């Protein structure tokens, strides 16, 4: 199966179209700074506005990691309660949302640790080895009627592979590809260097490439 | 991470800096297949991620979510003592010989007076109330000693059909495992009595 460069380029173009323009980001940053300042003066209504603005993003971020509605709902509440308590110390050196993501990251990791969900496992080889050659059809002709089904199957394999990435790698690839954050924003959100961000992204893509290569060879 | 890996990663994510441009051009010219294969994978995984994950997800019961945060924050703020001082006070209190004497005396009095240990509510209870449907208002919510039940008076509900039988359904516990808005209610025999579930429009349904 050939996924041409043009396919991926189109996907990247689509992603870029979905990303927030820089001026909107700057505008949001300004708006957040104003709301944060009001919060720091004790204005709870400003915090309520911040909750309404970011609850969907925080909820999605947690849900993407733990895939459970009820727990994500509860953890998202914890995030905002912790944020309110920590707001007096917030100096605005980073954007409010990256600071909030950092809290969400810590809350989610604390929870998973308590739940004893192992995050040590990297890619499991069984995903690669268990790939059933019969189940993964390889289109020989691009315009075959089965193309969409086959492509779906490949996507399923990739999706499975993403699911078994370690929490660290999965979180970073989600923040990059789904949330569209820059290296710097991801680094601030998860509390690591931009070098680590790049390294984890490269590692995750390398593993996905290996899996895709195996599927193509079958 | 090697310089080569960094350049490929930066190129895929459109994060090449000015100082990387020349190095990357050299790398691409020497091995275009390698660079393109990574970009291929990135494009596919990006599609998969976009299809399976969302950057923003509407939170169920958004207003309730906000109101609960406010409630918790103000409850904690109005708490008179901090946890650390409360803990040290408790330790001091337990260490006190008077505490042990008082505890023994209380147990003796209970034994001689034969006071049965009561459980449950002992008076009126004010509960937190919230109605997702703005046309329904909560008139009152309190524990009624005579009925031995919590009575919640609602205004604005649709008439309840006469054939609905509520008798004998004294709820003593509930379980909210599952998606938000899904609650199972049990009676004193641990028998499932009601299931409360919300429909696609966020309206509560009782089964």
Question: Would you kindly provide a written description of the structure presented here, covering whatever features stand out?
Answer:
Chain A has helices at residues 5-18, 22-40, 44-66, 69-86, 96-114, 125-129, 147-163, 167-177, 183-190, 194-217. In chain A, 72% of the residues lie in helices and 0% in strands. Chain A contains 10 helices and no strands. With 218 residues, chain A is mainly α. Chain A has 2 domains: 1-117, Orthogonal Bundle (Rna Polymerase Sigma Factor, Chain: A); 119-218, Winged helix-like DNA-binding domain superfamily/Winged helix DNA-binding domain (Arc Repressor Mutant, subunit A), CATH 1.10.10. Among the domains of chain B are: 3-52, no CATH class; 165-207, no CATH class. In chain B, the strands form 2 sheets. In chain B, strands 3-4-5-6 form a 4-stranded antiparallel sheet, with no helix packed on it. Chain B has a two-stranded antiparallel ribbon with strand order 1-2. By secondary structure, chain B is α+β, with helices and mostly antiparallel strands. Mean pLDDT of chain B is 75; it is low at 115-123. Chain B contains 6 helices and 6 strands; from the N terminus they run ααααααββββββ. Classes of the chains: A mainly alpha (218), B alpha+beta (207). The interface between A and B is large, with 56 and 49 residues.
Distance between the termini of chain B: 58 Å
Task: Give the low-pLDDT segments of chain A.
Answer: 1-18, 118-143
The CATH C-level class name of the largest domain in chain A: Mainly Alpha
Q: What structural class do helix, strand and pairing data of chain A support?
A: mainly alpha
Strand content of chain A: under 5%
Helix content of chain A: over 70%
What is the number of E strands of chain B? Answer: 6
The portion of residues assigned to helices of chain B is 40-55%
Write down the overall geometry of chain B: elongated
Give the biggest sheet of chain A: none
Key terms for this structure?
heterodimer, A: 218 residues, mainly alpha, Rna Polymerase Sigma Factor, Chain: A, Arc Repressor Mutant, subunit A, 2 domains, elongated, disordered N terminus, B: 207 residues, alpha+beta, four-stranded antiparallel β-sheet, 17% strand
């Amino acid at each position: 199966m050939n996924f041409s460069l043009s396919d991926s380029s189109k996907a990247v173009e689509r992603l870029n179209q979905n990303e927030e323009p820089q001026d909107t980001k700057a505008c949001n940053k300004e708006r957040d700074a104003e709301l944060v300042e009001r919060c720091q003066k004790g204005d709870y209504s400003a915090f309520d506005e911040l909750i309404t603005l970011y609850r969907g993003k925080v909820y999605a971020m947690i849900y993407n990691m733990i895939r459970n509605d009820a727990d994500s709902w509860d953890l998202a509440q914890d995030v905002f309660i912790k944020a309110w308590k920590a707001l007096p110390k917030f100096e605005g050196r980073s954007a409010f949302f990256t600071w909030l993501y950092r809290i969400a990251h810590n809350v989610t990791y604390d929870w998973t640790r308590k739940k004893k969900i192992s995050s040590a496992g990297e890619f499991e080889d069984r995903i690669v080895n268990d790939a059933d050659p019969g189940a993964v059809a390889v289109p020989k002709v691009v315009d075959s009627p089965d193309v969409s089904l086959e492509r779906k199957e490949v996507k399923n394999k990739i999706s499975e592979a993403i699911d078994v990435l370690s929490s660290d790698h999965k979180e970073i690839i989600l923040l990059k590809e789904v949330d569209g954050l820059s290296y710097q924003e991801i680094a601030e959100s998860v509390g690591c260097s931009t070098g680590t961000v790049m390294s984890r992204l490269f590692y995750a893509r390398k593993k996905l490439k290996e899996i895709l290569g195996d599927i193509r060879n079958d | 991470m090697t310089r080569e890996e960094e350049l490929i990663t930066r190129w895929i994510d459109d994060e090449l800096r000015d100082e990387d441009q020349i190095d990357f051009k050299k790398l691409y010219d020497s091995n275009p297949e390698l660079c393109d294969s990574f970009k291929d994978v990135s494009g596919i995984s990006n599609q998969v991620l976009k299809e399976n994950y969302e950057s923003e997800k509407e939170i169920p019961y958004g207003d309730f979510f906000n109101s609960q945060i406010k409630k918790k924050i103000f409850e904690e703020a109005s708490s008179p003592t901090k946890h650390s001082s409360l803990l040290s006070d408790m330790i001091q209190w337990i260490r006190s010989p008077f505490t042990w004497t008082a505890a023994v005396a209380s147990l003796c009095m209970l034994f001689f007076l034969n006071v049965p240990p009561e459980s449950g509510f002992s008076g009126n209870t004010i509960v937190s109330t919230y109605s997702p449907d703005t046309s329904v208002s909560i008139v009152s919510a309190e524990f009624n000693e005579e009925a031995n039940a919590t009575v919640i008076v609602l205004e604005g509900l649709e008439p309840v059909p006469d054939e609905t039988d509520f008798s004998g359904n004294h709820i003593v516990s509930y379980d909210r495992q599952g998606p938000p808005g899904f609650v199972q209610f049990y009676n004193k025999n641990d028998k499932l009595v009601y299931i409360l579930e919300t429909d696609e429009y966020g309206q509560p349904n009782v089964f």
